[in-house]
Amino acid sequence: MVPVPWPRLFLGCLGLFLSLLSVAVAEFTPSLDSDFTFTLPAGRRECFYQPMRKEASLELEYQVLDGAGLDVDFHLLSPKGETLIFDERKSDGVHTVETEDGDYMFCFDNTFSTISEKVIFFELILDNMGEDGQDQEDWKKYVTGTDLLDMKLEDILESINSVKARLSKSVQIQTLLRAFEARDRNIQESNFDRVNFWSMVNLGVMVVVSAVQVYMLKSLFEDKRKSRT
Fold first, then answer.
1. Yes or no: is domain 32-130 CATH 2.60.120.680?
2. Are 48 and 105 in contact (CB under 8 A)?
3. What is the residue-level pLDDT of the chain in tens, covering all 229 positions?
4. Strand ranges (DSSP E) for 111-161?
5. pTM of the prediction?
6. For residues 68 and 171, what is the distance between their CA atoms, to the nearest angstrom?
7. In what order do the strands lie in the sheet with 92-98?
8. Which long-range CB contacts under 8 A does 196-199 form with residues at least 24 apart?
9. Would residue 209 be called left, alpha or beta, if left means φ above 0 and alpha means ψ between -120 and 50 degrees?
10. What is the DSSP string of 27-45?
């Protein structure tokens, strides 16, 4: 077995450290995922714009958390003004489109409702928005003598990407679960108020009926004959 010179081994370890550092910086950049909750008044329409790059991916998920019917109209338009997706009177939806350069517009329409406002939650997940391929190529110039190591940097990069993807998926699922919880809580509170209202109405009717029955029974036993003088 040929002994490895210390300077060369040191340079190899240094190259490995720099490559891992550059991979960490490139891979763990701020997430492009975002979510938003807003109130859409009755008879109104709200639109949002999202700039996208070519060959990227736009995933949008929305839910109606509160409001009569739990429904809303949803439109997604391309930068050219073409309607890509149209949902009519839906309570939730998930859509993914491959994008081109330009601003994508998505709108929530509550013009069909004249009384009830809606509370709407939506989440945007943007993929392939950065120059990841170029970043992954840049770190390779720091590698020196890595052929002496058993573990390949490609395997480390693959593991880091896998962990990042799983963490992003976990965050997305937790966000959706919070949205479901908020919608269910609003439904339960609405049902609770409705039960209390009708319980009070029934109680009032019972009191009135009881009073009428007592009055009628009392009138049956009254002596209506006039006394003679």
1. yes
2. yes
3. 444 454 444 445 545 554 444 444 344 444 478 889 899 999 999 999 999 998 899 999 999 988 888 899 999 999 999 999 999 999 999 999 999 999 999 999 999 998 999 999 999 988 887 655 455 555 555 555 555 455 566 777 777 877 887 787 787 778 777 777 887 888 888 888 888 889 999 999 999 988 888 888 888 777 666 555 5
4. 118-127
5. 0.57
6. 29
7. 34-40, 118-127, 57-66, 92-98
8. none
9. alpha
10. HSPPP--EEEEEEE-TT-E
Q: How far apart are CA 124 and CA 4, in angstroms?
A: 51
Q: 12-35 in b/e burial notation, b at 16+ Cβ within 10 A?
A: beebbeebbebbeebbeeeeeeeb
Whole-angstrom distance, CA of residue 141 vs CA of residue 150: 19
User: What single DSSP character describes residue 114?
Assistant: S
Domain boundaries, given as residue ranges, for the chain: 32-130, 159-228
Query: Which contiguous run of DSSP H or E holds residue 178?
Result: helix 153-220
